[in-house]
Amino acid sequence: TPTATTAVPDAVIDALQGARRVLVLSGAGMSAESGVPTFRDAQTGLWEAFDPTQLATLEAFQMDPPFVWAWYAWRMQLVGAVDPNAGHVALAALAGLREVTISTQNVDDLHERAGSSVAAHLHGSLFEPRCSECDTPYDGEVELPQEPVERLDPPTCPQCEGDVRPGVVWFGETLPEQAVEVTEAAVEALEPGDVVLVIGTSGLVYPAAGYPAMARAEGATVIEINPHESEISDMCHHVVRGPAAEVLAAIVG
Ligand code: BJW
Ligand code: ZN
């Protein structure tokens, strides 16, 4: 569906032009225009009866490993089959003009495939499975279903025969220490005049949802890019109400 061109306030263009550093905090909406479903927008298909936030727990995996693994295997194949969008590409280009740090909640690799280096994957990666028992990274074969399937046995750990789990961060699990450190350091390095782009996140999940406010306290200009209101809209200096790919292509291009 064609989208009307979103109006970008001059203040947003000016802020980006004046910034030395740009910190990008991205969420699922960043990849929506690539065809990757967000978490909290309507779900379709096999898992439509399930709240994705209920599948994204260790308890769900332990209760029914093949059911949860099938969901992740399907998402791995889905992400592998789509391309970075114009927003990912625009951010990669911005890195040639400003000091850009990307800290993402996304478990896909679309920033990287557009040419960005990602400082932090706060919620891990779809592509770094590991043993659920002994934590050994799993680098063997992973069968990716071409169609959604209801059950798929997870691979078995060669070290201990435990079930292999996706390398993502589930609710109640701690975030990768390094990702948190790098993100907090990037926030603390912000100075007045620097810009934070908060792109495509509902702002519901902590600790990631707390970084925009921390950045504002450092004096940075906080700009949200999201077609809908989010939990962080109210604390942003500027809001651009449009889809990420279209808006980023317009403001960086
Ligand atoms: C577009 C668009 C377009 C659409 N362009 N935009 C403090 C207070 C309260 C609770 C807690 C707290 N601290 C910790 C908690 C508990 C919990 C939490 O936050 N709960 C809240 C829900 C209340 N947090 C945790 O458990 C975290 N761990 C932790 O804190 O450890 C310490 C600890 C341990 C034990 C006890 C207590 C503390 C871990 C969180 C892990 C989140 N994991 C998931 C799943 C990853 C695996 C997977 O991929 O399956 O991460 S949940 C899911 O939500 C996923 C996402 O990264 C995350 C955020 O979602 P996101 O990106 O914002 O997507 P959506 O779908 O919510 O929103 C999409 C947005 O895009 C919308 O706004 C759209 O409008 C927009 N959009 N199209 C731009 N084209
Ligand atoms: Zn193991």
How does this model look, in words?
There is one protein chain. α6 runs parallel beside α10. This protein has a 6-stranded parallel beta sheet, sandwiched between helices. Strands 4-5 form a two-stranded antiparallel sheet. It contains 10 helices and 8 strands. The chain folds into 2 domains: 156 residues, Rossmann fold; 77 residues, 2-Layer Sandwich (SIR2/SIRT2 'Small Domain'), CATH 3.30.1600.10. The mean pLDDT is 94. With 253 residues, it is an alpha/beta fold. It binds ligand BJW and zinc ion. Ligand BJW binds next to α2.
Offer a quick outline of the entry:
The protein has about 250 residues and is an alpha/beta fold.
List the helices and strands and how they pair.
Blueprint: H1 10-18, E1 21-26, H2 29-32, H3 52-55, H4 58-63, H5 65-81, H6 86-94, E2 99-104, H7 110-113, E3 120-121, E4 130-131, E5 164-165, H8 177-188, E6 195-199, H9 211-217, E7 221-225, E8 238-240, H10 244-252
Parallel strand pairs: 1-2, 1-6, 2-3, 6-7, 7-8
Antiparallel strand pairs: 4-5
Helix pairs in contact: 6-10
